[in-house]
Amino acid sequence: MNYKNLFDMFLKTCKQYNNELAFVYRVKNAEYKITYQKLYTDVLNLSSAFQEQGIKKDDKVMFVSDNRYEWILTDLALLSIGAISVPRGTDTPSQELEYIMTHSECKFLILETKKTFLEYEEMLKTLKIEKIFLIEKKEHDSYLTYKQIQKDINPTDKDIEYFDNLVNAHDSKDTFTIIYTSGTTGQPKGVILNHSNMLYNIEVVPEIIDLNKDDVWLSILPSWHVFERGVEYTAISHGCKIIYSSIKTFSQDLEYYKPTLVATVPRLWESMYSKINTKLSKDPKKASIFNKLVDISKAYRYNMRILKDQLPRFKDDTLKESICKKFLPLLKVISLYPLNLFAKKKLSLVQQKFGGKMKLAISGGGALPEYIDEWIDALGIRIVNSYGMTECAPSIAGRALNCDIFGTLGKPLRGTSLRIVNEAGEELKAGEVGSIQVKGPQVMSGYYNSEEDTKKTFTKDGYLKTGDLGKLTISGELILTGRSKEIIVLANGENVDPSRIESAISIMPFINDTMLIGQDKKGLGLLIVADFDGLKEFVQVKFNKAIKSFECVMKDQHIVNDIKKELNELLQKKHGFKPFEKLQNIHFLEKEFKMGEELTNTLMKKRLIIDQKYKELIDKILK
Question: Which end of the chain has the lower number of beta carbons within 10 A, N or C?
Answer without folding.
Answer: C
